């Protein structure tokens, strides 16, 4: 079997793994994401690639932001603005003076590819993966195919308005759906000490702290609103939730509860629309490592 390097670029960490073409991970690690400049970012990326470039048959990478699937170029990234017009295949060729099969994919679509390939969306023809992290993104599968849309913008939930009472970008799901912000708000609201982590925040939520529960329920309500909006447009059979916090059972339960309460408040919606199954993603925080690899394998299949 061939070995491939898969890299998941996030707002706080760059995760990477060595996998074979059956999706088996043989090594996995992560480093902090440099956010100061493209130069510092590329130093960290090259340091990862240097460890494996002599033994891999391809490089797969996913990023937060819009990716042109034909050119394999990052169009923009709100999370890491210096990635605008980032052309990894070109940079790799210039740096290493060789050509290697490379696939660049959006993080939300990578999650959908992972779950469709080996996870909880396997066999689904109309479904979606929603990734909750520093921001919020998704990959949508329609008629058994990953949906890119006319301008490679399908599934960019960051830009869906979910709070019309707010002003500016505070209206958008990218602000209201950030799990990082939600954790910070729970920590502040429940009086946890500065520096407390997500595990501490979820202990407060599960313990029934009213201030923590208020923040968390509002967050899950925003996610439920997004799912209902997606359902009204593309009529999905299943939605899986990925990202680090998807490992918390209370998250999926509360999103389902908030969805049910939302629909119950609108009888015509409850009567006319079918609720999609809302479940955790199989790969949780590792979905993008598998999905980026699947994007590369699909690209190689098309070329052969």
UniProtKB/TrEMBL annotation:
Instruction: Give the residue spans that cross the bilayer.
Output: none
Alphabetical list of SUPFAM superfamilies matching this protein:
Actin-like ATPase domain
List the InterPro entries. ATPase_NBD, ROK
List where this protein forms a coiled coil. Answer: none
Give the top-rank taxon of the lineage listed in the UniProt record for this protein: Bacteria
Tell me its family: Belongs to the ROK (NagC/XylR) family.
Show the PANTHER family listed in the entry: ROK (REPRESSOR, ORF, KINASE) FAMILY, SUGAR KINASE
Entry protein name:
ROK family protein
Q: Which organism is it from?
A: Limosilactobacillus mucosae DSM 13345
């Amino acid at each position: 079997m061939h070995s491939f390097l898969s890299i998941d670029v996030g707002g706080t960490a760059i995760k990477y793994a060595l996998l074979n073409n059956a999706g088996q991970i043989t090594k996995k690690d992560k480093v902090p994401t440099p956010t100061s400049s493209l130069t510092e970012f590329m130093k960290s990326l090259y340091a990862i690639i240097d460890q494996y470039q002599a033994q891999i048959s391809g490089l797969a990478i996913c990023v937060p932001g819009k990716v042109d699937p034909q050119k394999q170029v990052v169009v923009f990234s709100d999370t890491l603005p210096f990635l605008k017009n980032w052309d990894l295949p070109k940079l790799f060729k210039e740096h290493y003076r060789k050509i290697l099969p490379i696939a660049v994919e959006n993080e939300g679509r990578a999650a959908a590819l992972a779950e469709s390939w080996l996870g909880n969306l396997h066999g689904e023809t109309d479904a979606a993966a929603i990734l909750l992290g520093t921001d919020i993104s998704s990959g949508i599968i329609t008629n058994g195919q990953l949906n890119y849309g006319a301008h490679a913008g399908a599934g960019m939930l960051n830009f869906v308005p979910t709070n019309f009472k707010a002003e500016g970008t505070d209206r958008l799901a990218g602000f209201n759906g950030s799990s990082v912000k939600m954790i910070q708000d729970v920590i502040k609201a429940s009086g946890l000490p500065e520096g407390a982590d997500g595990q501490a925040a979820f202990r407060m939520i599960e313990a029934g702290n009213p201030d923590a529960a208020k923040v968390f329920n509002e967050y899950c309500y925003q996610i439920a609103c997004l799912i209902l909006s997606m359902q009204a447009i593309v009529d999905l059979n299943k939605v899986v939730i990925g990202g680090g916090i998807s490992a918390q059972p209370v998250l999926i339960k509360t999103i389902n509860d908030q969805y049910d309460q939302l629909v119950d408040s609108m009888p015509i919606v409850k009567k006319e629309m079918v609720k999609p199954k809302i479940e955790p993603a199989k790969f949780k925080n590792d979905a993008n490592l598998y999905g980026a690899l699947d994007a590369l394998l699909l690209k190689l299949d098309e070329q052969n």
